C-alpha cells in the first residue's frame, strides 16, 4: 500500500468540526500515513487550525459558498491520482480507504461508491433511510443499474476521470450527480458496502431541499449527460 499512498488524497469538507477533526485525521493517518489529507474549510471555529496542526492541507473557503462548491474545490485541488472523499464527522470508516483505493489502482475502476445501505444503519433516522431507498430505486429504474446509496460521502474517484467531468456544483445533493454522471458516460463504477458510524456534532442537512435537488439531478443526468 505504500506506493499507492503517495498517489492518494483523502479529501473532506469541514464547517465547525472542531470536536471531530483531530480524531478523523488521526484515524486516516493510522491507515494511510503517506496520503495527502486535504480539507476545504468554511468554519467559524478553530477547525482549520486544528486540521493544520494535525498535518492536513487546508484550503479556506470563507465566507461559505456551500457544500457543492467546496467539494468541487476539493476534487479539483487534490494532488493524488486517486481521491477518496469522506465526511469529517466520524461517520465513515477510515479503515476502508485502502480497499477503495486498490479498486481504482488495481482493478481499473474509475469510481467506487461506499454504500451505507446494505441494510438500515442504526445511526440513520428512518426518514433519511426511506428517502435514500426511494431515490436509489428511481435512479435504478432510470439508469438500468442497481443503485443503493446516491448520497454517500465516502467514495474513491480516479483523478483523470474527474478532470473529464463537468458538473453543477451549486445546489444541494451534488453526490447524486457525481455518481450518476460517470455511470451514464460509461466509466467503470463499483460499490463497496460500508458501516455508518455515530455522528460527532450536528447535521446541517436540509431534507426538503436535498430531496428536490436529488430528483432534479437524477432527471438532469438521465436526459442531458
Please explain how this structure is put together:
It is a single chain. With 225 residues, this protein is an alpha/beta fold. The chain has a single domain, classed as Spore Coat Polysaccharide Biosynthesis Protein SpsA, Chain A (Alpha-Beta Complex). It has nine helices and seven strands; from the N terminus they run αβαβαβαβαβαβααβα. It has helices spanning 2-5, 21-31, 47-53, 67-77, 97-105, 126-143, 159-162, 174-184, 207-224; strands spanning 8-14, 36-41, 57-60, 82-87, 111-115, 155-158, 189-193. It has a seven-stranded mixed β-sheet, sandwiched between helices.
Topology diagram in text:
Layout lengths: L1 H4 L2 E7 L6 H11 L4 E6 L5 H7 L3 E4 L6 H11 L4 E6 L9 H9 L5 E5 L10 H18 L11 E4 H4 L11 H11 L4 E5 L13 H18 L1
Parallel strand pairs: 1-2, 1-4, 2-3, 5-7
Antiparallel strand pairs: 4-6, 5-6
Amino acid at each position: 500500500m505504500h506506493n499507492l499512498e503517495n498517489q492518494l488524497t483523502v479529501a473532506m469538507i469541514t464547517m465547525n468540526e472542531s470536536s471531530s477533526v483531530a480524531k478523523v485525521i488521526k484515524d486516516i493517518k493510522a491507515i494511510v500515513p503517506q496520503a495527502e489529507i486535504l480539507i476545504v474549510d468554511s468554519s467559524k471555529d478553530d477547525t482549520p487550525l486544528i486540521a493544520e496542526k494535525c498535518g492536513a492541507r487546508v484550503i479556506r473557503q470563507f465566507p461559505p459558498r456551500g457544500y457543492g462548491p467546496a467539494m468541487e474545490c476539493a476534487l479539483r485541488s487534490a494532488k493524488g491520482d486517486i481521491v477518496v472523499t469522506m465526511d469529517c464527522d466520524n461517520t465513515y470508516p477510515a479503515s476502508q480507504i485502502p480497499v477503495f483505493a486498490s479498486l481504482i489502482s488495481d482493478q481499473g475502476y474509475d469510481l467506487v461508491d461506499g454504500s451505507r445501505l446494505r441494510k438500515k444503519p442504526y445511526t440513520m433516522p428512518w426518514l433519511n433511510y426511506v428517502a435514500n431507498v426511494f431515490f436509489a430505486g428511481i435512479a435504478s429504474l432510470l439508469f438500468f443499474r442497481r443503485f443503493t446509496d446516491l448520497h454517500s460521502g465516502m467514495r474513491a474517484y480516479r483523478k483523470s476521470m474527474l478532470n473529464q467531468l463537468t458538473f453543477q456544483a451549486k445546489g444541494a445533493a451534488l453526490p447524486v450527480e457525481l455518481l450518476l454522471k460517470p455511470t451514464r458516460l460509461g466509466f467503470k463504477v463499483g460499490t463497496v458496502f460500508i458501516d455508518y458510524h455515530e455522528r460527532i456534532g450536528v447535521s446541517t442537512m436540509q431534507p426538503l431541499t436535498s430531496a428536490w435537488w436529488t430528483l432534479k439531478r437524477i432527471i438532469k443526468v438521465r436526459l442531458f449527460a
